[in-house]
Amino acid sequence: MAKLLASIAWDWTLVWTAIGVYVAYNVVYFFYRLHQVRSLVREIPAKYGIPIMPHSYLFGHLVTVAKVMMKQPSDIFGGCAPLFVIKAYPELAAAGAMYMDMWPVSPPMLTVFDPDMMAQFCQEPSLPKAELMHTEFGPFTQLKDLVNLEGPDWKRWRGVFNPGFSAKNLLSLVPTFLEEIEVFVGHLQALAKSGEVVKFEEPAMDLTIDVIGRAALGARLHAQTKHNGFKDAMTRQVYWLETDRLPVTLLKLVNPFRPLMMWLHNRTMKNYFMPLIEQSIAEHSSSSQADTTNTTTGPKTIISLATKAYLSDPALDAKKSTQIDAEFLNVLISQLKIFMFAGHDTTATTLSFAYHLLHTNPSTLAALRAEHTSVFGPDPSTASSQIALNPALLNSLPYTLSVIKETLRLFPPVGSVREGQTNLFLTSPSTGTRYPTAGWMLFSCSFASQRWDAVWPRAGEFVPERWLVRDESDPLHVRKNAFRPFELGPRNCIGQELALLELKAIMVLTLREMEFESCYGEGAKKVEGDVAYQVKEAGQVTGHPKGGMPMRVRLRTGE
Ligand code: HEM
Ligand SMILES: *[C@@H]1O[C@H](CO)[C@@H](O)[C@H](O)[C@H]1NC(C)=O
Ligand SMILES: *[C@@H]1O[C@H](CO)[C@@H](O)[C@H](O)[C@H]1NC(C)=O
């Protein structure tokens, strides 16, 4: 017995020593990295003569930026912060980019908001995604997804999925979207009867999940009407990702349940996809002979395009006959996850902000309804069947498109982050200053850029009319490279046309029959004059409307 106790005591010494070594290692590493980052920053004025904001060796720019952000609501989405920094330091911002050292909260960051400088690392050349993305998305997809793949792997998969986003294929998917939107309309009518204020973002998310389910999986998820296990697992998995403010992320990382939860949700998602994948492979194997002549096969979905590419890959011939190649299966599951996620979240928040902006801009709403009446006639109830017969009608709604674009200008849900490179400098078109990028994360900050008054006249106002200006000498004309909610260049959003088509269809089928009133209480905090601003609550990855967009719906009666 005594021997046993002695050995336990010995074990504890070992444990404590191990913990001590681990802590000491991390403390040493922290200060090593601190020195590395702060030296990188101090080099900017010293070696390159580029002025930076007041910088502290211990806190970097944390105190400087915190002072600027103290004037904003504390829950504002961090991705919006550069706009206020620009406004606080206009003389530093004038050249179009600013170094921001928020380490250890985020990697040392060169925030870029001049559109032509954004083009220098997103378009020509298009640099690889930042390390930060890998930390965030690794546990979700093992980075085998279209947003995170790089080089030839990315190129091949983009090629596989591109046909799914052709104008023709998207239009052929529209009738399936309409079925889901009809469910949404029914839901809104019930809400209108009850008169209650709801978080509009939630039914909007359920709708956009159902729509992307049709386009990616060719399946109905019924997330709008029933509990859906896949939706649940996806949302919870995203909740556990390292995308929050530092303290929340640290709490997640030390939570002993995290690995178990991640494993469970991962398995639930896979189990949901498996029968759909098997079915798609079975269908394509049996129809592969007729495929070349048969033109009556349905719209291309993400799952069917991947299956087709797999079955026609000669390198995999030997394995295909017995079982699905394991690596192909892993990649396909990752792709489906990213399409299901990227394909719903941003579209739903955009819809929420659009309805808020229409409520606060009644003349825009009136003009939009007038456009719908001129295209579909006075009876709103016929619009759905008209679109089903001729989906291309959705392409003759220039004002509706302008409203969506103006919403995305003011509330872009995400920006792109890239890894800076040795020998790559960004050149300011206005001052000629050359910004070194090695060691820096480059942030293409669409939010700041799209509200920067050096680029946009009436930058803070909601002016859909600017999108209709064709005359380049008109001050309202939108200049090249400036509109980047979907980013520009080879890594731009593959789903942008789908999102626009979907949003237009939803607007046509709801706005003439219903009134949407965003309901922020008296004295609600404002950002840039608006009570609706972007926040990122625990577990959210993109900018979401404050409070989930509280909304009351009413039926319009013979106005
Ligand atoms: C309003 C809605 C949307 C917005 C604002 C948006 C925005 C973006 C942005 C900014 C990127 C670049 C991300 C980066 O650089 O890391 C991106 C990429 C992507 N988006 Fe979207 N997106 C929307 C809708 C969609 C939809 C509906 C789908 C799916 C059908 C989708 C799928 C993707 C994919 C797969 C990528 C990666 C493309 C690649 O790297 O090849 N998105 N999106
Ligand atoms: C999640 O599932 C994929 C297959 O879908 C697998 O490759 C991966 O290892 C799983 N990850 C975790 C954390 O269980
Ligand atoms: C073409 O494909 C459709 C759908 O898979 C099928 O119903 C039809 O019988 C096929 N036609 C021919 C001629 O193979």
What overall form do the CA principal axes indicate? globular
Strand residues, percent = 5-15%
CATH homologous superfamily name of the domain at 126-413 and 485-555? Answer: Cytochrome P450
- On the 0 to 100 scale, the average pLDDT is 93
- Can you count the beta strands? 11
* CATH class bucket of the domain at 126-413 and 485-555: Mainly Alpha
As for the CATH topology of the domain at 126-413 and 485-555, it is Cytochrome p450
Topology:
Elements: H1 2-48, H2 62-69, H3 81-88, H4 90-93, E1 97-100, E2 109-112, H5 115-122, H6 131-141, H7 151-161, H8 167-194, E3 197-199, H9 201-217, H10 229-239, H11 246-254, H12 258-287, H13 302-311, H14 317-320, H15 326-342, H16 345-360, H17 362-376, H18 383-389, H19 398-410, E4 416-419, E5 425-427, E6 434-436, E7 441-444, H20 446-449, H21 496-510, E8 514-518, E9 534-535, E10 544-545, E11 550-555
Parallel strand pairs: 2-7
Antiparallel strand pairs: 1-2, 3-11, 4-7, 5-6, 8-11, 9-10
Cofactor: heme
Pathway: Secondary metabolite biosynthesis
Protein name: Cytochrome P450
